[in-house]
Amino acid sequence: MRHSTRCSLKFYTNLRISRATGHRWGITVNLGFKISSQSHQDHECFKARQMTTFSGMGLTANEALSEDGLSDSDPRPEQHLPLSGLGPGVMLETSEGPQPVEWLRPGDLLLTRDHGYQPLLWTGRSAMSDTGVEPPLRIHAGAFGKHTPDHDLILSPGHHLLLRSPQVDLHFGCEEALAPALDIANEAETDFDIPSPDYAYCHLLMAEHEVVLAEGVWIETLFPDEATLSRMADRARAEIISKLGPALAKSQSARVMLHPGEAVVLQPRYAIAARRMAA
């Protein structure tokens, strides 16, 4: 920002970590036009010098930004995001046709958006009694359009769905992004289920973070970052670390993962990436 030109426009800033390999710095004029978008490594720190107004984040002109755009006293948004997971009965596209998530085992092949059919590395469950596990969100069949999803899609509020629309590129500088289900709840026909005491979320881990097809909607597999692992039971955490080995430290998200609240500007109901959309 050292060579920026002072002007009278107001800017909305978006500096956020991708939960993987760095962060993206974007500036959008208050009319909605993006005028700058740059990616930076996660060790870099910036000092904004000549921007008059930072209305999106409430920053003053000389305030230094940390790598995630938050001050030391601010909690990371991920800390408030529930553990991702799928409810029993959700159907996923496999090499053998649609299969319920609770039937899947390591070695089963799931259809991924980027790499064709890929094997599951690990499957696990998190009981409602576990720390940090929230009641499931039920996205009703057809909530995003005809047969989207095909049947009720039951997810943790923190599970990410794939969004694809011109607005994603306008606001975040990428064609597709992953947004938590909770951000989409107010845009579609959804309910929070009241599960039985023995209810458990299902988790699907692959060698890489992938986008897979569930009930006709593209969603994420488990992303084993620090925030996710901290919410897992001790045994599950140990199994994931053992399965991934050194590759765990190099884990990258399949897409930019939006923070809670960021998807609001996208009208996410109309941006859901579904089976009917070209891959």
TrEMBL record:
Domain Hedgehog/Intein (Hint): 88-225
Alphabetized SUPFAM superfamilies for the sequence: Hedgehog/intein (Hint) domain
Highest rank taxon of the organism: Bacteria
Region of interest called Disordered, as start-end residue ranges on this chain: 66-88
A Pfam family: Hint_2
InterPro entries: Hedgehog/Intein_dom (IPR028992), Hint_dom_sf (IPR036844)
Protein name as it appears in the record: Hint domain-containing protein
Origin species: Celeribacter neptunius
